[in-house]
Amino acid sequence: MGADLIRYHAFVPLKAADKLLEAHLTKLDKALALIGGPDKIADGGLDPKVAALAIKALETAGARGQDFDDLATAEALQSFVADIELVRNFDPAQFNYRDSASATVKINGVDMAMLFAGELSWGDEPQGAGYTALRALYRTGLMDVLYDAVPWDARRAKR
User: Fold this and answer.
1) Based on the structure, what is the number of domains in the chain?
2) Which domain does 44 fall in, by range?
3) Which of 36, 53, 77, 101 could form a disulfide with 40 if both were Cys (CB 3.0 to 4.6 A apart)?
4) pLDDT for 27-36, tens place per residue?
């Protein structure tokens, strides 16, 4: 057995990123408000049935539910709230971490940030800041929203 490269990569439309981020975070905040917000989760006093409902609400808001499967619901929600805070502060133009690389590219005339983060791993999940930031984008569902905004072909770029 050897080490594996565990990585995330992303293409982020620079002009649209802020608006897309804000709209997606609003949906996630509304889902969290159903159970009393992040503070209710942080203190750990959440009934397991309520936590399960909260996870369903977050999945409906676009969060990637498969990432909750391996965790107890209260722990999953606490981890997810931490990811939301990372996403709140995400700036693709400032993506400069030890474990990452970025470049600005044009795809069909649209300026995109191309982001990559990863590390060698012997089975554990990488802890680097770039990897953690991109993982948060995927877990919260924002990467799906950003991916849909990429003008992969010229027809989409004209919309």
Assistant:
1) 1
2) 4-157
3) 36
4) 888 888 877 7
